[in-house]
Amino acid sequence: MLLNYRLRSQYLCYFLTVAVVGFTSSMLLSAEKYTEDPGKKGNGNFVIGPKYQIVPDLTDLGNPKGKHFEFEMPLADSKIFPGTDKTLDPKKPVRKTRKIFVYVPAEYKDGTKAPILVTHDGPSRMDLVCNALDNLTISKDPARRLPAFIVIGVQNGGNDGKGSERGLEYDTMSDRYARFINDEVLPAVLNNKEIKAAYPDIAFTDNPWGRATMGCSSGGAAALTMGWFRPDLFRRLITYSGTFVDQQDDDAPEEAEFPLGAWEYHSSMMLIENSDKKPLRIFTHV
């Protein structure tokens, strides 16, 4: 799936250009009035790529809809991410609660152990996933038919980058976030009163091949890290423009083993190449 985006490009060395032009124009061209480059090349608005259309399967085709649910989890109740980690920067506020978004497709049969897709940063692009479920769980084409999996969108703990709760959750090279999802979020979904009222016997599969995770940017790094450290829990990973860079906090205990954070996936450490083969199915988009 590709969407249209508009990108405003700027000179790569903007400040250097301003400094040099300003300096030389004042010294060498003082008799002439300086005017901005109209931007024949490299400036302005551009549409990147052809005019891609969203495939019909990702649109609302009027098929039966499932049920949406939303509830909150107080960070203070968490044993894994209570919002009090010593690496957090006081200047980067932590949320008091995180929102959880759940979509149960119309084709789900109460009592069956459903596959799941966990998405990071809340309900981002969840509408497209829900449309795909509405349309493809009833597809007549067995090659395109989707199982009735349940989508769980998990809001991050707040802010971004080193010293933030989001950074702690998504950019840390450990199994912490995978454990948080498995041990705290999934049970909270299964025990939510509103969800239980609609689906008294709702259940999730224990088969890691039926448990997927998806994210963008640091959420993309989190998706890979969840499966990398806990392939016994999650084996299908979707990462969009993952931040496989050093955003792990400098004071995190994981620094001892992975000093460059998620950069170590492709650093001179050659983490992926030098590790035993893992039972993972990965889609990555850059």
From TrEMBL:
Keywords: Membrane, Transmembrane, Transmembrane helix. It comes from Gimesia maris. The keyword Transmembrane helix applies. This is Enterobactin esterase. The keyword Endoplasmic reticulum does not apply. The chain crosses the membrane at residues 12-31. InterPro entries: AB_hydrolase_fold, Esterase-like, Mycobacterial_A85_antigen. It comes from the Bacteria.
